[in-house]
Each structure stands twice: as C-alpha cells, then as structure tokens.
Design a protein that fits this description.
This protein is mainly beta and about 250 residues long. Helix content is about 15%, strand content about 50%.
Length: about 250
Amino acid sequence: MRKNKFLIIVFCLSSFLSGYSQNNLLSKKLYHEVYEPSQVIDSVYGIMRYEKLNFYLGGDSVRNCTGYACTGWVSDFYTNDQLLHKGFYAEGKLKMYKNYYPDGKLERDFRAIDDYRSKLILYHSNGTLKAEIEYREGNPIKYDEYYDNGKPESSEIMDKNGEYYTKKISWYKNGQIESQMIMTNKKDYIYSQKDYHENGNVIAEGNVKYSPILNDYVKIDTWKYFDANSKQIREEEYLNGKLHSSKSN
C-alpha cells in the first residue's frame, strides 16, 4: 500500500513538472519569441537574426511588440527554455543586446558607446573570444579576430573614416605570424608588407600603395621572394601597380 502511494505521488509530481514546463514555454511564446537552435544559429556567422534591428550597424528593420514598436528590455528563448536574446529597444531598434548559445554561453555582446561609436564582441561556441570590433558611424575601425584555441587570427586598424588600413596583421593557427602590412607614409598611402612561411621565415617583402580610385592595395618598387629556408629565389620590380621586370636567382 505504501509503495502504491509512493508511485502515485511520483507520477503526480512528474505530471506537474511536465505540465509546468509546457505551460512555462507556452507563457514565453505568448510574450516572447521561441526558436529551435537550427532556426537562429549559422555555422559560420553565429546568431544573425537580430542584426537587421541594429540601427548602428546599418539595420533598417523595426521590431514590434503587441502591435507597437518595442521599447525597453525584450528577451527571446530557445525551445529548451534557455535564454537566446536579451536586448534593449528604443522605437523598435536595438541599442544594446546579448545573444546566447543553447547551453547558456554568451555568443555576442553589442552596445552603443555614444551616437557615433559602438562595440561588438563575439564568442566561439566553446566560450573563447572570437572577435572584438569597434565601429565609428557604422564603419569598423578596429577588428581583432581569434581562433577557437584562443590564439590571434587577425588584427586590423582602419583610418577614422574606415576607408583604408593603417595596420593589418594575420597569424597562422599555430601562433606564427602570416602577414603584416603597416603604413609608413600616410600622405602617399605607402605600406611596408611582409608575408611569412608557417615556420616563421619570410616568403616575400616589399612596399604596397593604397589606391583610393581602385579601392585596392597594389605592389610598388622592389619585391623580394624567399623559400622556406630563407634563400632568395626571385626579385620583381613594379611600376604603377604592374609587374615591370622579374629576375630569378
């Protein structure tokens, strides 16, 4: 008899918890958006659903809540009851927000610093830092990206208008530098560039120039090329971004 009573109690408790969970999810659906992870997570770019609501980065959509433009804090959830998104809205547009992976780890954190500046931080699904991006009037002016092992992948700094690089560096996944381009003459848009083998030795070195007309970086002057053992194998001369002569060693 006692055993039967115990089983009845367990069954009732289980039914109550199941019903509570379903009702809780139903309640969230009434007042918030609820998604399956596959609906909102892109394998490359992460959770992009809310970017169209981000006025600071060029979004032009407005979010409505109960028929009116959302104002204040709004949260969305996954079907597993985990928080997906929490954002502060003004007239239906995002001012700041955080997105989360289904296991609760932070996926991105965006906030406006003032009317002109904003910052976005992205995270890999394992919790390590993926990227830190600083914007000015919607243009990225500083971009630092990281591999999922925590090592740096690239670092880019633009001029204040986001038109051209002042510094650009990339790394292999093992931590060795892959390429660097650093401005040496701001007036004439001249840069020193070096590319590296994965063992750390130089592949090529020379100068490049930014062309505002082409919106591109072209080789100029003398370029030298090396094998993985640092032996020079070729030398090239460039005029106006075009190869003028080449000499192999």
